[in-house]
Structures are given as C-alpha cells and as structure tokens.
Design a protein that fits this description.
Helix 3 crosses helix 5. Helix content is 57%, strand content 0%. It is built from six helices and no strands. By secondary structure, the chain is an all-alpha fold.
Length: 164
C-alpha cells in the first residue's frame, strides 16, 4: 500500500477481508461487543451461527462437529438397544458439546442475563412473616368490603351467537 489508494480500493479490500471467514478482521468484528449490540438494534438480526475465528479453523470446527455427532450416534444406538431389550425408560443423552471460542454474542448474552438477574434481585423484596400476614389480612378485608379487588370474578358477557 503506497498511500494513494482510492476509497473504492480500500472498500474492496475491507469487504474481501470480511468475506474471508478466518481473517483477523472477521475475528475482530466477531469479538466487538459494541458492534454486536448495534446489530441487534438494526433492521437485520445478527447471524445465529458462530463465526469462524482464527484460532479455530475449518478442520478444527469439522472435527468438533464430528465428535458431537458421534456422541449423538452413540446415544441413539444405546436408546435403540435399551428399547429392544424392553427397558421402559431410555438412558439420558450424554452428548457434551466441545467448547467454542468466545465471541461478542456470548459476552453480550451473559452480561444481559446478569443484568436481568440483578434487576430481579433489586425488585423483589422479602418481608418478615408478620408484615406478610398483615398485608394479606388487609387485602382480604378490602376484598370483603368492596376494596380494589373484586370478591368474585366478573361474569362473562352472554354469547350473542346462535347455535348452528
């Protein structure tokens, strides 16, 4: 690169690197959490499948997939054998997926789950048993006295359709 390239040349270079799944640019894009969050808000959703990264090439990815498929085949042959010999309940599957490289999707999903759990902990309030019983008694008294909650559920409106 001499420094006198046009913007079209640079654009073609960047798009070519993006198309190449195992480039360092594709890995940087896959690990960029801010870019992933922006793609969640856009009109098109990010792809469901994990991108190919530099440390896990095609052969490693294929070997991991073959390993998992062989585990499934082993499980289904055990299930067929168990049902052939009259066992009522087949054994549970023992398919363990091999660890995949960390991507921005994994990090964002883990952070969002952590935030949702923290919000749940912030919202929920545990009260002493006495306060709980007082609140229930007050709600029942309001219910019997025509308070905010109806004593019985309202009747559904009569059907206007004629039976056929």
């Amino acid at each position: 690169m001499r420094g006198d390239e046009t913007t079209a040349t640079l654009y073609n270079l960047v798009t070519a690197l993006q198309r190449r799944k195992t480039s360092y640019l594709a890995q940087a894009i896959a690990l960029d959490e801010e870019l992933y969050e922006q793609s969640l808000q856009g009109p098109q959703r990010p792809p469901k499948k994990a991108p190919d990264l530099v440390e896990v090439g095609l052969s490693e990815s294929l070997l991991m997939g073959i390993h998992e498929q062989l585990q499934q085949l082993n499980h289904w042959s055990a299930v067929n054998t168990a049902t052939a010999f009259g066992q009522q309940k087949p054994p549970k599957p023992k398919v363990k997926s091999l660890p995949r490289p960390e991507t921005a999707r994994n990090a964002v999903e883990r952070r969002l789950a952590r935030e949702a759990f923290q919000h749940f902990e912030d919202v929920i309030v545990f009260v002493p048993q006495e306060q709980f019983e007082q609140t229930i008694a007050r709600a029942r008294a309001e219910q019997e006295g025509g308070g905010p909650w109806p004593a019985t559920p309202p009747e559904p409106p009569p059907s206007t359709s004629s039976p056929a």
